[in-house]
Amino acid sequence: MDFLTSVLTITIRAGTSLTIATIGEILTERSGILNLGVEGIMLMGALSAFATVFYTHSIALGFLVAIGIGGLLALLHAFLTTTMRANQVVSGLSITLFGTGFSSFLGQRLGPASNNFRLVGLRAERIAPLAPDWAEKIPILGAFLNQDIMTYAVYLLIPIAWFFLYKTRPGLWLRSVGEDPQTADAMGIDVIKTRYFYTIIGGMLIALGGAHLSLSYTPGWSENITGGRGWIVIALVIFSMWNPARAVWGALLFGGINAVQFRLQASGTSIPASFLNMLPYAGTIIVLVVMTWWEALSKRVGAPAALGTSYMREDK
Amino acid sequence: MNDTVVPKVEMRNISKSFPGVVANDCVDLKLRKGEVLALLGENGAGKSTLMNVLCGLYRPDRGEIYIDGKYAEIHSPRDAQKYGIGMVHQNFKLVDSMNVLENTILGLRDEPFVPDLKRVRSRLVDLASQYHLDVDPSASIWQLSVGEQQRVEILKLLYRNAEILILDEPTAVLTPQESHELNRVVHVMKQEGKSAIFITHKMEEVMEFSDHVMVLRKGRVVDETSTAETTPKELARMMVGREVLFQIEKKPMAPGKVALELSHIEALGDRGLPALKDISFRLHAGEILGIAGVAGNGQRELAEVVTGLRRSSKGKLQIDGKDMTNKSPLEIIRRGVAHIPQDRVSVGAAGDLSVASNLAMKQYRSRPLAAGIFLLQNKILDFARTLIEKFRISTPSPKTQVKFLSGGNIQKTILAREIGAARTLMIAVYPSRGLDVGATETVRRQLVSQRDAGLGVLFFSEDLDELLQISDRVAVLFEGKMMGVFDTNTVNIDHIGMLMAGMDREAGA
Fold this sequence. Notes:
The complex is a heterodimer. By secondary structure, chain A is mostly helical. Chain A contains twelve helices and no strands.
């Protein structure tokens, strides 16, 4: 495998969980709900998926449990922010705090007695690349083929999400709810139901992104396995201008810097490891700020106009 | 018309209250097929509330609705749509970032999963030509003028085959010519057997548009009559419950020194496009300069530049002889400049704060309302009570949140606050827009008395009659350019109308 293809392979692998979670958060934010619980939901997704697969040996069940947990946490967020009309930032942050703490706690309780009830350091089935051996030898293209089923799903998810959002009737309704809930309501669209629905769908995708980490990217459970990827997702949503088709570029950017620093570390460079570990985060944030700034200046684009606000019909 | 015919819409015994306010109190309404009913009343009379009940946005506390004589269960806008009810709200229900086609089909359940926008377009174009409602179907809403947006709203209802159209103060944002166009459209719809309810507080429009008129006051029906059998004067009396003076007495102007001078001011709008182009004029103390023009031609930007809320990219701004170009709003307020902004809800007042806090907003920095960094709440309440009485602001208490007041009372609150802060200039942007006769009268009188007290008044209005009545001189804004300044005693109203539409061929005449 040549250098470029191998870096690209890691890039795509690293970008998979980010892309899934970013698309999930885009759908949620398009309905006007800001969910800052991404980090917590990803962690809970990663933990529940790994624990399930460890005990049941069923990867499919692992994904299902992660999706269920993600949906439940998002339901909580939807309930607090739409029905109870709590502040979306506060609610989202609490979910992240809860998810971080609770996943760490469960990681020390759910394991087998032989491992002192800890999940850390255990092995379970993992999802492996789908493509046959010869495929990865093809330069460049091989990097795209030599991926697991989740990545293949992402290849489909990106165009589907884009088409759904911009070309279909429910997509149009979703966008209208996030832009102008008063208008959507007056046009007969159920704002509350829409917000519940897409917050939950978003939470499921976010948890799925977390599950990909513990079942494929860095198989196994370790505390804080996401390493702040949930926050990167929040940034990527902004960078993508709430467009699923653009989510992929941000995810690849983060994944790419990650891949390069891996290679550097592996080659035994004298640059301190912690500095290299920081690079993907710092690099992504710098590029995001510059790109978003430049973009916002040149075009009329921006967040869904009603993002972060609660809605009630007879409110003044 | 024959009363034995089953009415198209009948609302019986509708009551609706909001915290501290009874908006509708046992209201009965009948709309006959093929008829235009005018709903006349002051602000806060409950017209919009009643119509929001009919279109499913508000749930009444009591009362029933019958359509074609049958009991209709309307719990949501979707239910109302099923009964063919469509409403053009005062604040248009259009998603700014979407285009006309997308807005047209928004919320329609019978559109396919992947809407066929070509088919939507062709039907929209047909409707547009049938009703002479010219609009570009692929334009985004934010690119359209207010008049065009209203056409989109009407097209949207026609596309949905609405049989009952509710128009909430539709002419408030239109030029006189556009109002006539609207009247013609309503007429065509009437001939096709559609019915309409028309909310307004302008007598002339009741006479021009409607067959029947129903007058509301303080949430109750005062009277219902055939338009042909009444007069504007009688209607006005029913509406406010007393005789209204339509004329404002004005002393001759006694201009003093220059209070405001703009030289070659240019500024960009929100979208980064030039909004003001080479604006120069002088406003003297003791003078009212009226600014005419259709909304969106630079009025808001001009007011914002003068009050320090928007940077000018070029030119010089002098207030009371001092260079105040691009100074902060606070520095400009300290020069004694008062501002009644266009958007009274989001810029003029803080809705979640109390009436008292809003009234104190320009005086809280110093005694007697504050001692150092501490606010003296009792002094603020006393101060508020005085102003509430003086300006007849109707509010349950000085501690009531401003957002629960009606538009007219919010405006009186702003007016009371700003007049207290005005020493050199008063910038009033559409101060009487959407206000009833009583509140409009208060606003106009106050502006004239500010002028008589020696302030320069910059007065923006879309109502030409009002503008010519109040102002000493009048200027026309069109696409950010000043189309000339005229003495109101000699100017011809048709000429102003032409300039508002950008035609200055007759300028030499």
